[in-house]
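Bumping my old thread because nobody answered last time. Still need a sequence for this structure:
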């Protein structure tokens, strides 16, 4: 009995996960590897962050949070952007999630219908095409170039399916 949906069976293996697996295999053989696959930091979580996590558990921040994140956390993020980056985002424009991949998948799954074509500028993050396919959309790729700052235009762009 097949317990995985046809939708999931149609997906290709994540290139990011495959690269991470290969890097771990090579490291286990004693080969010095710098893996640029998962986007994980190459250092342990700093103690002040671990301590804040433990404090949150002690204060019972262990229930489901609001979908867009705790208000005080979104305010802190907004303030950080203003202070460190000179950009102004309201808390309504900020979402705290488990990661970009999950947020992008949620958006695609909520917007794309079967057969919808979705434009993907290339180069692109390897998960985009599979997320679109999971939503039963059709990825349509457009090459971009450093020559035009990776911007899309009718004059310089060519669409294709892979």
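Sorry it took so long. Here it is:
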């Amino acid at each position: 009995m097949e317990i995985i949906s046809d939708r999931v069976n149609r997906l290709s293996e994540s290139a990011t996960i495959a690269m991470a697996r290969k890097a771990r295999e090579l490291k286990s053989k004693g080969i010095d590897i710098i893996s640029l696959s998962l986007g994980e930091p190459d250092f342990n979580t700093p103690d002040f962050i671990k301590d804040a996590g433990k404090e949150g558990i002690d204060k019972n921040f262990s229930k489901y949070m609001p979908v867009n994140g705790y208000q005080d956390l979104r305010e802190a993020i907004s303030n950080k952007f203003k202070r460190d980056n000179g950009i102004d985002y309201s808390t309504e424009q900020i979402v705290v999630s488990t990661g970009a991949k999950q947020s992008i998948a949620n958006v695609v799954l909520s917007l794309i219908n079967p057969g919808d074509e979705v434009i993907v500028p290339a180069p692109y993050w390897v998960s985009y095409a599979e997320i679109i396919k999971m939503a039963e959309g059709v990825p349509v790729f457009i090459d971009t170039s450093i020559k035009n700052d990776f911007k899309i235009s009718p004059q310089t762009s060519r669409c294709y399916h892979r």
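The CA atoms of residues 117 and 138 lie 5 Å apart. Let me know if any region looks off to you.
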